[in-house]
């Protein structure tokens, strides 16, 4: 059943939403997100969780931002689905008051939100998805009205991850989105985000030399650069970080800008649910592969939010060798 009866009119949630170039917000709704996963064990158990927040439809994605805090409200990214990945949308529940979304990543998401209790609102989703697929694939694909299967999500206490395919961009994007969601809203401000390859022309641009993300401390104006990497496993017990020429470009940029650079690596598990995470100062990286004696010093809890102190307490040499 819906938990709200009006469209979103607050703007605070937009601070937690990072849009791509040419991506625009079409509509948004207050509501909750109900998701289901199967807890493994001798007797597998189906578990259902629910999160309050905001559902956002853009011309490229369907996004859910979870609401945090009882008195001082804030939001963090919980779910991002490319419209091209959605296979089905169906109405369901008591009085058909929720929308269930099915994609090709085999899990279920049900959104109990205001204003999506009728076929006209449902058609809004279908039209935008069809339009997006026409743009991306050059043809329209019918969205069947079927019962949805589970989709992925993340929670702080008990998270389920998206089993993505082998496409490196999808893995990198999923990890980058998850990584951004771990930053406290204050005092961090996302200052710059490089364009992702699928959205760039088939040419090399100057921004290709930059780390993925630039954050700024809104109190001190200090900047930090971060390159996010996801690795499925170690290579002969060594951690592969990045190509040597890429590392040298990051070091040069860091020196020129007089701001520290870090490589954040998610290891094992899945991109939006890594088993391990490492916050590596660029000046500690001497080559493409790091030994356990180096990278284990910088291991952190992969579910813990970042604070500015965590970056300040690591020795910085401005990207020097």
TrEMBL record:
InterPro entries: GLUE_dom. One of its GO terms (molecular function) is ubiquitin binding. Pfam families: Vps36_ESCRT-II. Residues 45-83 form the GLUE N-terminal domain. It comes from the Archaea. This is GLUE N-terminal domain-containing protein. It comes from Candidatus Methanomethylicus mesodigestus.
